[in-house]
């Protein structure tokens, strides 16, 4: 029995659909959700819906009963991620779960990482590895979806890309490709305590992003690498709150420092095909 947390989210939903396509019976899949009303489609497929919350250890203990394998989809509350993930890890171990999988983040160097929020992924990995359970850690590179949907801005085709990311390169991959790969791995019996680096087959700078957009829309899109001071000053004039800037600045600093530049064949191998490339991904995500 495989328990998928965050089952009504974008990642968890694709993982479940992939497992079903791979021949995993719906009665072998359980879905952990906080809101049962959002899980009607899962119930209709015959999936066992279990109510639980990362903050509620008792609910997690109940949800883990009879479970052999768990996918822990990283939580969203950055103020207490490690404690939430500890609750899931401890509940899984207490229930005798044989394999704990986790959606981590593919970052190049833990020691030089600036973004403290991203450090929580490594801390969670430490918890899982130290638990003594077999594990599968999926280090997902920055989603191309996030880059296209949030980082570029709605007026990118008119104003270009203006970010404090320097010449930093990232091996962006689609969330759907990464989720499909996770579903493929979970569909097998293998849980050999392995770390996967799910990245694209090459890295891309924002200059590459600008060039791809130019080709797709038939007009010149430019990339202007801003200094952090200028970026922050402009963001303040647009009303971006200080607490948001405190999170955003380290994020772009890490990109500029190459934290997202790992390249691995793990994603391609798990998919059984090449991951969607930058130009094709931007065309899909931005409807170009």
UniProtKB/TrEMBL annotation:
Please list the residue ranges annotated as the NmrA-like domain: 2-250
Return the Gene3D superfamilies for the record: NAD(P)-binding Rossmann-like Domain, UDP-galactose 4-epimerase, domain 1
> Which segments cross the bilayer?
none
What SUPFAM superfamilies has UniProt attached to this entry? NAD(P)-binding Rossmann-fold domains
Q: Which Pfam families match?
A: NmrA (PF05368)
Q: What is this protein called?
A: NAD(P)H dehydrogenase (Quinone)
């Amino acid at each position: 029995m495989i328990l998928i947390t965050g089952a009504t989210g974008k990642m968890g939903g694709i993982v479940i659909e992939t497992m079903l396509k791979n021949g995993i019976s719906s009665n072998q899949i359980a879905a952990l959700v906080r809101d049962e009303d959002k899980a009607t489609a899962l119930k209709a497929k015959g999936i066992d819906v279990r109510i639980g919350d990362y903050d509620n250890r008792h609910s997690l203990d109940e949800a883990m009963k009879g479970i052999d394998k768990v996918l822990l989809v990283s939580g969203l509350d950055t103020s207490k991620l490690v404690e939430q993930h500890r609750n899931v890890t401890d509940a899984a171990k207490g229930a005798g779960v044989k394999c704990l999988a986790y959606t981590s983040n593919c970052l190049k160097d833990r020691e030089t990482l600036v973004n403290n929020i991203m450090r929580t992924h490594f801390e969670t990995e430490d918890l899982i590895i130290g638990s003594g359970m077999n594990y599968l850690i999926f280090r997902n590179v920055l989603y191309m979806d996030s880059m296209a949907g949030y980082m570029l801005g709605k007026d990118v085709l008119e104003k270009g890309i203006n970010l404090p990311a320097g010449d930093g390169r990232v091996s962006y991959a689609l969330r759907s490709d990464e989720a499909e790969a996770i579903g493929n791995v979970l569909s097998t019996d293998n849980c050999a305590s392995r770390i996967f680096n799910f990245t694209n087959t090459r890295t891309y700078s924002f200059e590459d992003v600008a060039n791809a957009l130019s080709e797709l829309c038939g007009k010149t899109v430019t990339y202007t690498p801003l200094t952090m001071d200028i970026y922050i000053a402009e963001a303040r004039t647009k009303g971006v709150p200080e607490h948001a800037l405190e999170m955003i600045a380290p994020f772009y600093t890490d990109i500029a420092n190459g934290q997202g530049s790992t390249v691995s064949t793990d994603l391609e191998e798990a998919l059984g095909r090449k991951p969607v490339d930058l130009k094709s991904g931007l065309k899909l995500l931005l409807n170009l």
